[in-house]
Amino acid sequence: MEQKIKEFPAFKVNGFVMLAVVGAIALLGSWYIWSRVQGLEALLARELKVTDFIGADDAAAELVAWLAATLLIVIIPSLSGFFTVEPNQAVVLVLFGQYMGTVRESGFWWSNPFASKQKISLRVRNFNSKIIKVNDAEGSPIEIAAVVVWQVFDSAKSKFAVDDYEEFVAIQSETAIRALAIRYPYDSTDDTETPSLRGIPDEIAHALQTELQARLEVTGVEVIEARLSHLAYAPEIAQMMLRRQQAKALIDARRQIVEGAVGMVNEALNRLSQEQMINLDDERKASMINNLLVVLTSEQTAQPVINTGTLYN
Prior knowledge:
A hairpin with a 2-residue loop joins strand 3 (89-95) and strand 4 (98-103). Helices cover 50% and strands 20% of the residues. The chain folds into 3 domains: 13-120, no CATH class; 125-233, 2-Layer Sandwich (Tetrahydropterin Synthase, Chain A), CATH 3.30.479.30; 238-297. The protein is α+β, with helices and mostly antiparallel strands.
């Protein structure tokens, strides 16, 4: 069964306090060694003959060596227990293959000298994905890229859940972008306002962030923001799609012009009928409607023709 490791505070002592303790132990040990050597030499000088002074010196040297070795065994390993933690940084402690906790508080600290200390940055970082070529929901090839803002929130997961959490973020970000692109079309092609990559950027950003967070939860990484930084049709269909967009825009403009012209003609006929300015039969109404529509929908300025009357023989 997989063992899930979560971050917890590690044992630590203020480094300056521990430095004072280690210094005091070193001074006391040095004084003790010196005093014992002096006392031993005096004792041996009284009890031994003058010819045995060489043996006394050897015994004193052996005692000094043992005391010095004991002092070094205590002092030197303790020095490896000192470490510093910068702001927005964590230090993971591992002792003989076992996770011993994490130190997040910045400052100068001392902990178990036999534990390895590995630093992990907690700063906010950006990942700019490469421009990826993928097919959207309609099968059209598009180019897409995104910017992901993330930071580590659980140092234990980041250290022990994956081999390299930074590489894991990069790979999973590109995978999430591909998965998002194939679920939505590049742009809506009808009047129903179908959700699309181009039409709803805020919703797309939220969907990308949600999917990324689900993928990166195992690594102890928090996705702060994720947004598309590049979105375009692939070069091989870009010109064709541009012409289609232009045609759609032209049709929409024509439709709006026609709807406006029909409304204006209807309003004019109703106004003439209500005010009884002139009585028109069906043929003249049709002619008037035709003329008004031509004038209102024409792209060029209409040239008026003035009718001055009818000439009868």
